[in-house]
Amino acid sequence: MKFDTPATTNPIDRLKVIGQPHDRIDGPLKTTGTAHYAYERHDAVPNHVYGYIVPATIAKGRVVNIDTATARRAPGVLAIVTAKEAGPLTKGQYNTAKLLGGPEVQHYHQALAVVVAETFEEARAAAGLVRVDYARSPGAFDLAAAKGRAVKPEDGQPDTAVGDFAGAFASAPVTLDAMYTTPDQSHAMMEPHATIAAWEGDKLTLWTANQMIHWGKGDVAKTLGLPPDNVRLVSPYIGGGFGGKLFVRADAILAALGAKAAGRPVAVALPRPVMFNNTTHRPATIQRIRIGATPDGKITAIGHESWSGDLPGGGPETAVQQTRLLYAGANRMTATRLATLDLPEGNAMRAPGEASGLMALEIAMDEMAEKLKLDPVDFRVRNDTQEDPEKPGRRFSQRNFVQCMRKGAEQFGWSKRSATPGKMRDGAWLVGMGVASAFRNNLVMKSGARVRLGTDGRATVETDMTDIGTGSYTIIAQTAAEMLGLPLSQVSVVLGDSSFPVSSGSGGQWGGNSSTAGVYAACVKLREAIAGALGMDAASAVFDDGKVSAGGRSVPIAEAAKSGEIVAEDSMEYGDLEKTFQQSTFGAHFVEVAVHAATGEIRVRRMLAVCAAGRILNPKSARSQVIGAMTMGVGAALMEDLYVDKRLGFFVNHDLAGYEVPVHADIPHQEVIFLDEADPVSSPMKAKGVGELGLCGVAAAIANAVYNATGVRVRDYPVTLDKLLDRLPTV
Amino acid sequence: MKPFTYEKASSPAQAATAVARERGAKFIAGGTNLLDLMKIEVEAPPHLVDINGLGLDAIAPTDEGGLRVGALVRNTDLAADARIRRDYGLLTRALVAGASGQLRNKATTAGNLLQRTRCPYFYDTHQACNKRLPGSGCAALGGFSRSHAIVGVSNACIAVHPSDMAVAMRALDAAVETVKPDGTTRRIPIADFYKLPGSTPHVENVLAAAELITAVTLPKPVGGTHVYHKVRDRASYAFALVSVAAVLQPDGSGRVALGGVAPMPWRVEAAEANLPKGAKAVTSSLLAGARTTPQNAMKVALVERTLGAVIADAGA
Ligand SMILES: Cc1cc2nc3c(=O)[nH]c(=O)nc-3n(C[C@H](O)[C@H](O)[C@H](O)COP(=O)(O)OP(=O)(O)OC[C@H]3O[C@@H](n4cnc5c(N)ncnc54)[C@H](O)[C@@H]3O)c2cc1C
Ligand code: SF4
């Protein structure tokens, strides 16, 4: 099915099941420990053994010698695979560095070998016995130092320009020109990367944790030189990903190589202390923002430049993205530059681009509002635009940004904020409020599904879509139930298997809308088949209450399948509506913080997000996405920081004690409001993404609240107490 | 993790003898620190002697009017004990500021005193660390040092002792009771228990090989207002950037010990005479001779400001 004109009325609009706050249908499995994650698939692979990876312990150079003799003699050891034993491997399309390194070492903790043994403990002990001698090469590890050598990336649009930015900025009555930095961040999801691999002849099955099954299947095949049809990925439950599991990682490839060498299925999980340098991370940025405005607060010039680094062949953090679309202004420019760094591979982490970009832009907007003596909400509202500022005439399909700001300000009690910083006090604590815009584009991806109507009248949906804790199972079941007029309990959903139709996968907040649109397409086909089987006119048939009705007849849906299951498969593809419409999601984040006047300790007190993100398919799971994202925003604002040892070239704080993410005590009262929207340009579901929107802007709202509390402006994340201390009131 | 053997001790003295028998053998109490370090091969004892179940888990009054806390009393139980809460509130506050509820249920009094530093290079067995591998160098000097020590440091090591409980124990003048393999016992005031790194940062305290801690004693209660202020980036489940333990008396006198600034809980009794003069005066003698790095230099101001807040709190 092709979606190339805006949606009209369809069965989803009934909102009998869709749009209802149903509990997650996988919830009981998760809470009783019966949803088995990749590393726990002993049911599927009863006789597997264990692999443990040997990571490189230099940042750049060559392996001179790798001595596995002692390890091979250790108890329980079945096989050891290094680059030599593995033979030539092709780098996957979505990988920058090789997943099995050697002799060249491209980054710290790049895998150099896998040791396979009967038990986990034996594999781990033997891995400790592998001796590696290196020849180190000098590397570039310091973004600030490499910034001057940064170049225009080959892909994307490294430079954009509209009007005369330089002239307009130079002549603007009120201007801001400031630099901001964001640090490297780690996904730090709960479930480590993990895979069990089993070969049957030259066919390979991987029970793995992967967000994008189809990409994964392709890259496993490419890396190992197999026909894609010989590879099967199974990933029904995923313990969080945040983009860290978009791509095939070392666990999958080394499990496959280990299993081949050992002649047994092999399970490999990345140990937590290795995850931070072995896998991908959100790259650090240095950003420059220039804004010029008239005294009444109309932006006349807006410029955003960003520098980030990556391994050779890698890509930039596209931190300027939102600045092209978020605010009005006739004269604009953005520039994205990429430096070569020999740190581990940078790549997508939740809201790549916007999350980092808004951390800077939304502080800049706060600074600008202050210069203009305008309320920061008002300043943003004044610069709203209903069309793409780079392409006037190309309208946003829907943009209720101003409504988000106004609703949020009212709900939060924004009017109680003191415009002068450092004026609100509660005992030993300085109290402040901050606001920031949330913005993230709505991406749509082709997505397919198969739907079966069983002889018992139950529907089963099969698609390779994944549920990374987001609620995919539930919204897919809701979609099928709505389309077929069945109660939710009559629908089963099976996900995450590459033998199912290819879906959008989970990434870029496209999964919710795209995967359900694919299910919609398959259901439309199934409805036709059912109507046909019942001798009814498909166009006028009504599916409701477990019955199909048309032409004065009404029969239970199960009737249609009484002589055998009916199966329909289709996918939703997208035309070029994006030429006419810009599709984005919007929001406003409001935060109240308290800062200890003596110690500078920062504690968030209240958070509110107002989101305009199309139809909300399930308000409960959508709210969970947004409060999770807000929590991640607290981390980004106040603590998350991969510390780069610029001499040795690695992230030093590579465990969960050193890399701090928020704990319960950091998270106060959180409130989420969804505006009542349905965007017919996005898909027949009229939904958009929320999972990343919820993160966009949060950190800046917190930084702005800290400024409002203390009068100390911090432009380098994370905002920690040491950056406030010398400017706090004397004790 | 390296393979190891395991035995359950039958008495404190037998435990000490068992550890003495095998080079590198260790006691295991709650295991919350030791097992983590064994998994990543920072510690690799060939033999473990389990000291749980030896009856070292009681809290009993001493003849001097204080309390004797068994070495195996769990952090949770110690913090919750009514006598501790009433007379040694500082200790309860320090304990509950540490780790998490689950960890405190396992962690023991002796294990807490002996927990090792959280320096990230100490944890990465492929980096230079004199504490882990004497003579290999110190990667933290010139590297990540934001959480590191500013007093009592040496050119060989700038790691902090991470315990919260020990800071309170130091302010309360606790003493450590031990038994050696030959059955002799001794009592070590906590002021003399820890060692500064000097050129041997792997030696962290005065315990002899195979010497078992049996109890920690607390002297008679000293009254006063007990405040423990632990400063960190996140609200819970993180080690201190700095912490201030104070017992402040109505007459303005008191005791102050610091965490997060030194290789041991840090107390300079002479500095306490300055308490009536305020936080600045106390801090300048407490931290006299501080040797900071660009990343941890802020701890000097942070100590002063935190102490200021603590004094204000106690007065309020
Ligand atoms: C994630 C995490 C966060 C933490 N956060 C904090 C925090 O914020 N603040 C804090 O203070 N602590 C914190 N801790 C540390 C925790 O307090 C210690 O791990 C715990 O107190 C150690 O006690 P244990 O009984 O488990 O010791 P074990 O791990 O059993 O032993 C530790 C050491 O002491 C030796 N030992 C144990 N008992 C004796 C004895 N009786 N005689 C002689 N030697 C003995 C052992 O041989 C071993 O070398 C944290 C720990 C973790 C894992
Ligand atoms: S500070 Fe101490 S523990 Fe840390 S690396 Fe240096 S020697 Fe090792």
UniProtKB/TrEMBL annotation, chain A:
Residues of the Aldehyde oxidase/xanthine dehydrogenase a/b hammerhead domain: 32-138
Pfam families assigned: Ald_Xan_dh_C, MoCoBD_1, MoCoBD_2
GO terms of molecular function: iron ion binding; oxidoreductase activity
Species of provenance: Luteibacter yeojuensis
Protein name: Xanthine dehydrogenase
InterPro entries found in the cross-reference section: Ald_Oxase/Xan_DH_a/b, Ald_Oxase/Xan_DH_a/b_sf, Ald_Oxase/xanthine_DH-like, AldOxase/xan_DH_MoCoBD1, AldOxase/xan_DH_MoCoBD2, AldOxase/xan_DH_Mopterin-bd_sf, PaoC-like
From TrEMBL, chain B:
GO MF annotation: an example: oxidoreductase activity
Flavoprotein listed as a keyword: yes
Leader sequence segment: none
Positions of the FAD-binding PCMH-type domain: 1-223
Transmembrane segments: none
InterPro entries assigned: CO_DH_flav_C, CO_DH_flav_C_dom_sf, Diverse_Substr_Oxidored, FAD-bd_PCMH, FAD-bd_PCMH-like_sf, FAD-bd_PCMH_sub1, FAD-bd_PCMH_sub2, Mopterin_DH_FAD-bd
Keyword entries, A-Z: FAD, Flavoprotein
Flavoprotein recorded as keyword: yes
Pfam families on file: FAD_binding_5
Stated name of the protein: Molybdopterin dehydrogenase
Organism: Luteibacter yeojuensis
